[in-house]
Amino acid sequence: MTSRESWGGRFPVNDIINLLDNFPAHNLGESTSQDLVLGELLDVVGIEHLRELRLGYASAAGSSALRDRISSLSGVPPDNVLTTQGVGLALFLVAFEHCRPDDEAVIITPCFPPTRDALTGTGVHVIPVALDFDEGYRLDVVRVAEQLSPRTMLVCLASPQNPSGVRVRASAVEALLEAMSRKAPRALLLIDEIYRDATYGASPVAPSFAPLDSRIVTTGSISKAHGAPGLRVGWMTVSDPDLRARLTVAKMNIVLSSSVLDEALAERILAHREEVLAPRSANLDQALEILGEWHAGHDQRLDWVRPEGGAMCCMRLRSDHFDDSSVSRFWEQLPDNEIQLGAGPWFGESNRVFRLGFGYLPLPDFRLALDRLAATMDQVTE
Q: Using one digit for the tens of pLDDT, what is the confidence trace for 116-156?
């Protein structure tokens, strides 16, 4: 599968570029919390902390201060942490170092497309296991276990999931690890925790899966919950010292090291995470309440999987209200109404499903965008 293809069929490269580079007036396609502004961060940490920062090459493993901070939040030793330029590089490095072209990777879908593409880009044979919208996208361990084999080297999932925002239960992870022991003894379980800190209101942050088992590799970043995707800082936790060493060398050969400025700012964000996260968690909570009330007024034509974390959710155009031609007109009409959504086929779903981001827009703009979305549905069924 090339970058020109989506999980559910063709997804033109130009459409992907438009998705990344164009910002419509009513952007419901974004999956992050509201952007962190540099001045906002400097108000918290002060500029003096950065004045003496030396802008030379850094350690390929990442700055010790940042790795210490991630360690304290993940529950693993600092030596188990390797920083990367976003989670995308982490996914690629794991697939590149742990797998060979004839190996298999089982990936839980729907999923964030670069997760899939990082695997296919290394030549690994990707086996998707689709979760069911009507089952609330709950992880079906039996269904996953059916696809495991001695050739399986990676099992990939996310918690909370992107695009649904559904969390994976610890009991399901433990059951999956047991199945891997029996059927795929060489496999690693890669759990993307990029939305772990994206909670609603005063809800507690779930503990990381990193300390649970030595076969678990976790990934995270400051892009989504903390609103800082412009600082290209992600990380992974890896228990196996040999694999971790090979990953570090691979990172060095590709990018030498991460930006020392980006990592210094990321460390400060994590050091003051409560101050950074609190307004974003409050905004997510309010936006989710608005979205729930809006959906209640449209539940005759839209199904919904209510999220448990993250800044996005999945909705589905009901077949008893939208025929296939109406669905096609819906997607055709969105650009004319300056609305952006995440298309289901991009994530491995049908074109009736879309990802709706509710954490990015200011609340008045979010309400307006929902009104425009409702008007679009009216237009295509008139």
A: 888 888 899 999 999 999 999 999 999 999 999 999 999 99
How many helices and strands (H and E) does the chain possess? 13, 15
The pair of three-digit structure tokens given for residue 28, joined into one six-digit string: 């419901």
The b-or-e profile of 158-184 (16+ CB within 10 A means b, else e) is bbbbbbbbbbbeeebbebbbebbeeeb
In this structure, are residues 317 and 334 in contact, taking their beta carbons and an 8 Å threshold?
no
Domains and CATH numbers, the chain: 5-36+275-380 (3.90.1150.10), 54-274 (3.40.640.10)
Q: Cβ distance 4 to 345 under 8 Å?
A: no
Which amino acid would we find at residue 336? D
Report whether the peptide linkage leading into residue 128 is cis, meaning its omega lies within 30 degrees of zero. Answer: no
**Omega before residue 160 within 30° of 0, cis:** yes
**Distance, CA of 302 to CA of 223 (rounded, Å):** 29
Q: Is the pTM of the predicted complex or chain greater than 0.85?
A: yes
Measured distance CA(225)–CA(351) in Å, rounded: 27
Longest Cα–Cα distance in the chain: 63
Instruction: Detail the DSSP E strand segments found in 9-100.
Output: 9-10, 26-27, 81-84
What is the spatial distance between Cα 140 and Cα 162, in angstroms, rounded to a whole number? 16
Asked whether 193 and 133 are in contact (CB, 8 A), the reply is: no
Residue 18: how many CB atoms within 10 A of its CB? 13
Question: CA 291, CA 314: separation in Å to the nearest integer?
Answer: 12
Q: What pLDDT digit, counting tens, does each position of 215-247 carry? A: 999 999 999 999 999 999 999 999 999 999 999
Q: Taking Cα atoms as reference points, which of 331, 341, 302 lies closest to residue 318?
A: 302
Tabulate helix, strand, coil % of the chain (nearest 5): 45, 15, 40
Burial of 92 (0-12, 13-18, 19+ CB in 10 A): buried
The residue to which tokens 């069929």 are assigned = 9
